[in-house]
Specification:
A hairpin with a 2-residue loop joins strand 2 and strand 3. The protein has an eight-stranded mixed β-sheet with strand order 1-8-7-2-3-6-4-5, sandwiched between helices. About 40% of the residues lie in helices and about 15% in strands. The protein has nine helices and eight strands. It has about 230 residues and is an alpha/beta fold. The longest helix is centred in the middle third of the chain and has 17 residues.
């Protein structure tokens, strides 16, 4: 990981793709991913990609109770702007961004006090962003091509959508990392080691996406993940 970080940070590699890793093994080896992620979780956004559905998460491993208390208009606007600038860097000239609500039908105090005002601020700055959109429909809009990316509020909101729509072939991107960094959307699967049955399509998807984004061609369009 350190060698990959050095190569990418020095411009000798355009992107890095990480195979599945065990967080328990990393901890035992007294290693972490801070060189990739940075020390502050607010500097990065876990992004999952599966065919036409691409989801940025404002919160990752945070209790839903804390998401409801901590979400703010500033956080929403910051996530929208980071998403917009990243997509432009990767070759999408006019990103279309949909923002999920938090509560049923996107009606609640978080939408009124944080998500809505955060979206309006980004709109005032000229970004093509819409929301808050009811979370039971916004991901369908992404699948149908209405938006280039959806911003979800919390971990399970985005992960359930991706893994229901197209688990096979999905991959993970860490938006806001010091360099273009992708990985797979699954763990090490130690229980099937040596059986010759490991699924390869997620690693292939991560490599194809890394090559396409690094070249400024936008997102790669793989085969339908459901086939």
């Amino acid at each position: 990981l350190k060698q990959a970080a050095d190569l990418s940070s020095n411009g000798r590699a355009d992107a890095t793709v990480m195979a599945p890793v065990s967080s328990e093994s990393l901890a035992l080896a007294k290693q972490d991913l801070s060189d990739v992620f940075g020390r502050d979780p607010a500097d990065r956004y876990l992004t999952l990609l599966s065919g036409p559905l691409r989801i940025v998460h404002i919160f990752d491993h945070v209790l839903l109770h804390d998401v409801c208390r901590q979400i703010s208009a500033t956080m929403v606007t910051q996530a929208i702007k980071k998403t917009h600038s990243s997509l432009v860097d990767w070759g999408i000239d006019a990103p279309r961004i949909g923002v999920a609500g938090l509560n049923p039908h996107a009606h609640g105090p978080q939408e009124e006090d944080a998500i809505g005002p955060g979206v309006v601020k980004a709109q005032d700055d000229g970004l093509d962003v819409h929301g808050p959109i009811p979370p039971d429909t916004v991901f369908r809009h992404g699948i149908d091509g209405r938006y280039d990316v959806i911003i979800a509020m919390f971990h399970d909101q985005g992960h359930i959508a991706i893994k229901t729509w197209g688990f096979v072939g999905n991959c993970a991107l860490f938006m806001g990392a010091p360099y273009l960094f992708l990985s797979v959307g699954h763990g090490t699967a130690f229980d099937i080691v040596g059986q010759g049955i490991a699924e390869h399509r997620m690693m292939r998807s991560a490599m194809l996406q890394a090559a396409s984004l690094a070249a400024g061609r936008g997102f790669a369009v793989p085969d339908n993940p459901q086939t």
